[in-house]
From TrEMBL:
Hydrolase found in the keyword field: yes
Residue intervals of the AB hydrolase-1 domain: 20-123
Gene Ontology MF terms: hydrolase activity
Pfam families per record: Abhydrolase_1
Superkingdom in the source lineage: Bacteria
UniProt name for this protein: Alpha/beta hydrolase
Keywords on record: Hydrolase
Length: 268
């Protein structure tokens, strides 16, 4: 383990126990957002994985994006082998849910539960695949180097009703300067390597004994329920959990849910 622990700075392991929960945070966050989980989930190891370019530069960001995901898979295999953990659960928040789904499909028979919190990647989103297409990537990067121009484009998108007022506000909060604006492009392009099929995801969940739980903020104006309707229709009703939260608070309301509900990590 130490070879990967010291080689890269995207992995953090908290707690001790016989169970494992793998956590991927949302845009603009770091592993620290999960640091209280060992107090909530006893007898559980928490493995957190930083998104690409979070913080702004980590050692893996200098390498090919494919290596990022290869090393994640290697780390999980080494950790579970060392700790003798045969099955585990995965949670992903917002854009981190894309990586969570990707990892689930790499270990479908090993994953007990997949928790998707206010998830990006499973709804109807035409912007992400277009912006991260190989031919478009250079243009996307160039545009995102100028936060002022990007902000104007976002305003145009709102005017054309492509996005809502609250979505416009949320996006502009992450465009405070050129550095933050550029990080959006870098993060999106890196994550696009972890492409997955929503159909494959649903089919794997149905064929295995794993459980998919979808957590949606009732007041989420960023990840809209209407964009997830096609995905939701393929899940049992009991798999959808509504949280009293907007997008920014959804993850913390999920933590509260973990405190009060028995999951595969703390079931007796």
């Amino acid at each position: 383990m130490k070879d990967l622990d010291t080689k890269y700075d995207i992995f953090n392991v908290f707690g001790e126990g016989k169970d494992l929960l793998i956590c991927i945070h949302g845009y603009g966050q770091t592993y620290k957002v999960f640091s209280t989980l060992p107090n909530i989930l006893k007898n559980t190891i928490i493995l957190t994985i930083n998104l690409p370019h979070h913080p702004f530069q980590n050692k893996l960001d200098n390498l090919d994006s494919q290596i990022y995901f290869t090393e994640i898979i290697t780390f999980i295999e080494k950790l579970t082998s060392e700790k003798k953990i045969k099955n585990w659960s995965i949670c992903g928040y917002s854009i981190g849910a894309r990586i969570a789904c990707f990892l689930y499909l790499r270990f479908p028979t090993k994953c007990k539960e997949l928790h998707l919190i206010a998830p990006d990647g499973i709804g109807d989103n035409v912007i992400f695949p277009i912006a991260t297409a190989k031919l478009i990537q250079p243009v996307f990067k160039l545009i995102m180097t100028n936060a002022v121009k990007v902000s104007k484009l976002i305003s145009v998108a709102k005017f054309l009703n492509i996005i809502s007022v609250k979505q416009e506000r949320f996006i502009k909060q992450n465009l405070t300067n050129n550095l933050y604006s550029s990080r959006i492009a870098e993060t999106w392009i890196s994550i696009s390597v972890a492409n997955f099929s929503k159909t494959d995801l649903i089919n794997k969940v149905k064929k295995t004994e794993s459980k998919l739980l979808l957590f949606l903020g009732k007041y989420d104006a960023v990840i809209l329920k209407k964009d997830l309707d096609n995905f939701i229709l393929q899940l049992p009703k009991e798999s959808i959990i509504y949280l009293e939260a907007d997008h920014n608070r959804a993850l913390f309301k999920y933590f509260e849910w973990l405190k009060t509900k028995k999951t595969s990590q703390d079931a007796s």
